Amino acid sequence: MTITGLIYKMGKVVRKLTTAILIFLILNSSFLVLSTPKNYSTRLNLASRLQKDQLISREKIQIQDNSNFQGFPGSGTKEDPYIISGFDITAPESEDYNLIDIQDTDVFFIIENNYLSGNNLNNGYGILLSGVINGLIRNNEIYNTTHGGLFIQYSQDVVVENNLIADHQWAGLELFETNNIEIRNNIFNNNNAEGIASYFSTENIILNNTLSFNIYNGITIEFSDSHQISGNKIFSNRLGGILLASAESNLIEFNIISDNPIGINLINLELNGPAKDNVVVSNLINLNGEGILLEDGENNSISQNLIDENQYDGIVMINGRRNVISNNIVSRTIELQGFVSTGASSDNIINCNLFSENNIYGVFIDANSENELIKQNDFIDNFSIPQAHDSGLSNSFENNYWNDQDYQDQNNDSINDNQYSIGGSTANVDFNPATNEHLVNDDLNICNLEEIGLPSEISISPSQTALLTGVPLEPVLVLPIAEPFLLIFFGAASITIVIIVFYLRKSNIHSNQE
Questions:
Q1: Interior/surface letters 313-327, b for 16+ CB within 10 angstroms, e for the rest
Q2: 339 - beta bridge partners?
Q3: Rounded-to-integer distance, Cα 291 and Cα 337, Å
Q4: Distance (Å, whole) CA 172 – CA 218
Q5: Which among 211, 318, 383, 387 could disulfide-bond with 195, CB atoms 3.0 to 4.6 Å apart, if both were Cys?
Q6: Peptide bond before 73: cis, by omega within 30 degrees of 0?
Q7: Is the pTM of this model over 0.70?
Q8: Among 260, 258, 298, 255, CA closest to 280
């Protein structure tokens, strides 16, 4: 074979190899784009509720005291509040300011039906309230500021409702040293920090909001007390659903919390004190990484929650003291346990829960946990046999139902005549296991807490039934195929492949003719 012929054959091989590589790269990159879910990199498809062509464009609004409301309709009374409405305020590139800034006022006012955008350029908030009493913020759309959507500080008696707050470089809404703020029926989506954050504040209400795809937590309550967090839908946030950090006496109820790394997280921030005296009741917590993580918490009550199909553990307690875990359904963990007690946890009560179909144990007590009472729970079809593990100190298992145990009750006292051996290094046993399940119906009140001397108020809470009347939230992973950029990409890739194949075939035909 001549050198020319060898070069010709090598050229054909190179062309074919190049074609194969190009096709592989294009198809592979297309597959990667198509197969990547948008859980933490997108926003909901949010339709604007305002007709922008009917809004009046204007620059920022700054009000420094009661007298600055002149020019807006109203007189500042409760019956005739000042009205700031119908504006399109979009920040120019070169200026840094809050789009609406109200400070040191106690007259009544309403901010409604405005479109506010920072264009991701100006260093300010959409709305800032400081030293304000008697404000109502409703039906606004607030987008793309570098500081955050709303910031409310040193204020009280303010309502924030029915707003769309999205795509901010910081939190959707922040509270700092406030009280009696009500945040209800808003959407907080795709913000680069929390959806809602409350710092050093008391007695605020967070009700019926949707918080999704935020980079930090859906809701953060830090060094703050006596908040009611109720009826919210919290899903697909990057760090977690709800965080209570060194927070006391907060109520978390009737929320749907799904597809977050941690559903609810109660922690102690260094030396600032534990999360304590909080009540977590009647929530649906499913499809998260960890269901509930309680770290360095004291005197918290976790009751009547449905904690289902989370990736790792249903409930994890680390260094917890005197907490009560009662009347929960903890089921179908994908990888780990139903309940875990670890670290220096002590004197906690795990009572009247259903642990069902968890991947390893229903309950796992680690080496340094002590004086834990595990009483009157139902253990059904957890993967490991025995269905509980104890390597701690002085922990008690009493009158639990174990569905893997043979039934024997000669004296008909509803106590199994055979003790149940617990796994782990302590060789612990349940001396008086129950012969029947404690859970009789769909209500989560499977035991009477007063039977073991617990305060009756923690058992008085609504039935889970109202929460579960709808279909449990299962966030859908949205593929980005409909986005214009990707449609252009796939179109260009297809055309490129066709052109390459055409020219290679033409080159081969020309070479064969020669």
A1: bbbbbbbbbebbbbb
A2: 315, 363
A3: 11
A4: 10
A5: 211
A6: no
A7: yes
A8: 255
Least confident of 45-49, 188-192, 301-305, 444-448: 444-448
Q: Torsion-angle region of residue 39: left (phi > 0), alpha (psi -120 to 50) or beta? A: alpha
Q: Quote the Cα angle for 370-338-340, to 5°.
A: 25
Q: Classify residue 357 as left (phi > 0), alpha (psi -120 to 50) or beta.
A: left
Q: Strand, coil or helix: what is 131?
A: strand
Helix (H) or strand (E) holding 488: helix 484-513
Contacts (Cβ under 8 Å, ≥6 apart) of 105: 63, 65, 66, 69, 131, 132, 133, 134, 135
Which residue has 């009572």 as its token pair? 351
Structure tokens at 389: 């593990």
Residue type, 94: S
- Hey, what are 17's tokens? 């190899």
Tokens of 104: 């040191």
pLDDT tens column, 96-128: 789 999 999 999 999 999 999 987 776 789 999
Question: Taking a C-beta distance cutoff of 8 angstroms, is the pair 463, 444 a contact?
Answer: yes
Buried-exposed string 129-164: b where 16+ CB fall within 10 A, e elsewhere: bbebbbbbbbbbbbbbbbbbbbbbbebbbbbbbebb
The 10s digit of each residue's pLDDT in 149-182 is: 999 999 999 999 999 999 898 999 999 999 999 9
- Report the mean per-residue pLDDT for the chain: 82
- Of the candidates 281, 434, 262, 452, the one whose C-alpha atom is nearest the C-alpha of residue 350 is 452
Phi-psi region of 56 (alpha: psi -120 to 50; beta: other; left: phi over 0): beta
CA–CA separation, 212 and 231 (whole Å): 14
254 in Cβ contact with 231 (< 8 Å)? yes
For residue 450, give Cα distances in angstroms to 7, 326, 352, 455: 91, 12, 12, 7
